[in-house]
Amino acid sequence: LATGPRQNNGIFYEIRTYDIKPAKMKEYLETVNKYFHFRTAHSELVGFWYSELGAMNKVLHIWKYDNFAHRTAVRHALANDKDWQGKFLSAALPLVEKQHNEVAYLVPWCQLGKPSKEGGVYEWVTFQMKPGGPALWGEPFRAAINAHINTGYTKLIGVFHTEYGSLNTVHVLWWNESPDHRAAGRHSAHEDARVVAAVRDSVRFLESQKNVLLIPVQCSPLK
């Protein structure tokens, strides 16, 4: 199935989601804040968050790689990093119930953004699209995203289209000043005829969607 145009370089993003054992989140985050510099010494961390609403006891982090050979080299180096293995993994893995990863590209019309200031909250919205890729749904989906941006209440950070994992999936990362700011903006957007028209056009290609409100951890570059 055609996926449409894609970036000319090999850069991709690995999205990792971990389920943490109930009552162990505080201990897990303390371990991350203490030892995660051993991991970020090997490759670029885009952001690291824990879930606040929409899911419980989850963390999500995004890594940037130049290509698949780059990721392979990083994974090999981590396997031989005694500090990473002995200090972080030995303490963190017993706290984890489940791990899941996906490989994704930014959609062709999106560049990775940053919030206008530190603080605030992030919203991770997952859209399960009909098969066909951006060649099929790209322009209507882009119009719906832009309609929300144009309301001014939210900041787009990135739009990711999966290559490995759950296929035909798009993840959209938004930033808002607060949950209440988001709620007020969403209410206004639902009454905006431009947003309503753009969303109505894009949902023709949508099968399901879900979202999670995320809080950045101390070591996250995106705060």
TrEMBL record:
Gene designation: Nipsnap3a
Signal peptide: none
Family label: Belongs to the NipSnap family.
GO cellular component entries: mitochondrion
Pfam families, per database record: NIPSNAP
Biological source species: Hypocryptadius cinnamomeus
Protein name in the entry: NPS3A protein
GO BP annotation list: mitophagy
Domain NIPSNAP, first and last residues per copy: 13-111, 122-221
